[in-house]
């Protein structure tokens, strides 16, 4: 039987994209308290199919697929530029295909406008009209308003007209940065990407008996199940090992492993893999913010996801990427030594290489050498770093790694950084290895 919380989530998901949602409306329609309705709406927002916009309210949006996460909805643009919606609220859920700065003559500008594009422009009312007629949305910079006719057209075509106090360059920079951040996030696999949802999950209740476990085992061929209470909260996990020589009428609550490790939908797959390997767990329950069961992930699902992620093309650079891309392998070192020049971006306000950059380079040298010796994924467990001497800008430095302890699950690496013949930094890195 589904809980009130799950019923509200399902109801919200069934609404048409673009529908307005309010706590009072949900509470009235589903006969629940406003507090329960509020928590469910926030959960829907975390799951990505609801968006809240200042001065507009909460609306149902299209849930983003992982491959399209870099796309922004017009609702998100409003929040990014701290904008005000002047018209076309019914189109806020739509996804923008591109943005154009309309700093040109009308005839030239119209060649660049497609359906669902966003045109960043000042107080040019004629241009606003032409953009809407072409299926685009309008973002007016400088805090200007527009005509009532443009607002009526926006409502008619269901395309937003937004006003912001920022100038065109600042707005373009803000939107570009938001898209770039999403390109980086696209690489980060989350538990929500691989979770087996609740309707496909087999679980036991605290008052079930060992006989019920055997029935599920015969039906599903699985031997690990989450255990829930009457509120759908995960209170335990039961495995075949827990049931050795137990009579069939024994209650599950008496033999289950209590207070199990769980993860949320926003947990990274790498983090989940770390917990599974560290604790020797084959299955993890996935829960919401209140500990209620949303589904499960298995060790096999996690490893498949990590392998898939490693085959994806690079789509966005993090600061770590920008630093470590400077490392060049010494061909004669067999994957254990690298060289790099200290670029201006790597320095602190003192003009020497920053400690954060040096730590990143030391860890990268260690992990590359581990991967060279043992193919697979890894998670850095511990780093001990020593800095002996400041390193000046444009200095040539060498990172040398020595893997001195390598097992099935762990690797230890001693890393040295030298400038010429001088030792300038040293680190001991311990990493957890995840077999594919």
Automatic annotation (TrEMBL):
Xref: CDD domains: CBS_pair_DRTGG_assoc, hot_dog
Pfam families reported for this sequence: 4HBT, CBS, DRTGG
Coiled-coil annotated residue ranges, if any: none
Superkingdom classification of source: Bacteria
InterPro entries found in the cross-reference section: CBS_dom, CBS_dom_sf, Diverse_CBS-Domain, DRTGG, HotDog_dom_sf, Ser_kin/Pase_Hpr-like_N_sf, Thioestr_dom, WH-like_DNA-bd_sf
Record keywords: CBS domain
SUPFAM superfamilies linked: CBS-domain pair (SSF54631), HprK N-terminal domain-like (SSF75138), Thioesterase/thiol ester dehydrase-isomerase (SSF54637), Winged helix' DNA-binding domain (SSF46785)
Stretches assigned to the CBS domain: 195-254, 256-314
PANTHER family named among the record's database cross-references: CBS DOMAIN-CONTAINING PROTEIN, CBS DOMAIN-CONTAINING PROTEIN CBSX3, MITOCHONDRIAL
Entry protein name: CBS domain-containing protein
Protein source organism: Exiguobacterium chiriqhucha RW-2
């Amino acid at each position: 039987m589904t809980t009130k919380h799950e019923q509200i989530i399902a109801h919200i998901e069934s609404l048409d994209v673009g529908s307005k949602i309010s706590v009072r409306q949900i509470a009235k329609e589903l006969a629940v308290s406003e507090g329960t309705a509020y928590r469910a709406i926030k959960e829907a927002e975390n799951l990505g199919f609801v968006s809240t916009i200042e001065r507009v309210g909460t609306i149902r949006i299209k849930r983003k697929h992982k491959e399209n996460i870099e796309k922004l909805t017009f609702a998100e643009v409003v929040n990014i530029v701290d904008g005000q919606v002047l018209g076309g609220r019914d189109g806020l859920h739509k996804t923008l295909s591109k943005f154009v700065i309309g700093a040109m003559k009308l005839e030239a500008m119209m060649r660049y406008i497609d359906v669902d594009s966003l045109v960043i422009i000042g107080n040019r009312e004629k241009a606003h009209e032409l953009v809407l007629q072409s299926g685009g949305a309008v973002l007016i910079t400088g805090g200007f308003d527009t005509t009532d006719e443009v607002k009526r057209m926006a409502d008619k075509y269901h395309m937003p007209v937004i006003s912001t106090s920022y100038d065109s360059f600042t707005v373009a920079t803000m939107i570009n940065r938001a898209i770039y951040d999403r390109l980086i996030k696209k690489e980060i696999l989350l538990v929500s990407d691989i979770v087996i949802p609740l309707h496909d999950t087999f679980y036991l209740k605290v008052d079930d008996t060992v006989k019920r476990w055997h029935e599920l085992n015969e039906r599903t061929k699985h031997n690990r199940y989450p255990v829930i209470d009457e509120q759908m909260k995960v209170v335990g996990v039961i495995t075949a090992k827990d049931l050795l020589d137990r009579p069939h009428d024994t209650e599950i609550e008496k033999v289950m492993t209590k207070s199990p490790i769980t993860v949320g939908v926003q947990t990274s797959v790498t983090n989940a893999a770390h917990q599974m390997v560290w604790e020797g767990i084959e299955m993890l329950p996935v829960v919401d913010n209140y500990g209620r069961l949303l589904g499960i992930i298995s060790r096999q699902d996690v490893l498949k996801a990590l392998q898939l992620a490693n085959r994806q093309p690079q789509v966005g650079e993090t600061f770590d990427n920008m630093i470590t891309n400077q490392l060049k392998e010494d061909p004669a070192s067999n994957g254990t030594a690298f060289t790099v020049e200290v670029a201006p971006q790597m320095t602190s306000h003192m003009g020497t290489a920053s400690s954060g950059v040096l730590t990143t380079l030391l860890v990268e040298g260690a992990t590359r050498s581990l991967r060279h010796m043992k193919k697979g994924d890894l998670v850095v467990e511990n780093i001990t770093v020593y800095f002996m001497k400041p390193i000046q800008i444009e200095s040539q430095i060498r990172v040398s790694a020595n893997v001195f302890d390598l097992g099935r699950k762990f690797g230890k690496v001693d890393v040295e950084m030298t400038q010429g013949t001088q030792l300038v930094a040293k680190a001991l890195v311990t990493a957890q290895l995840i077999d594919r």
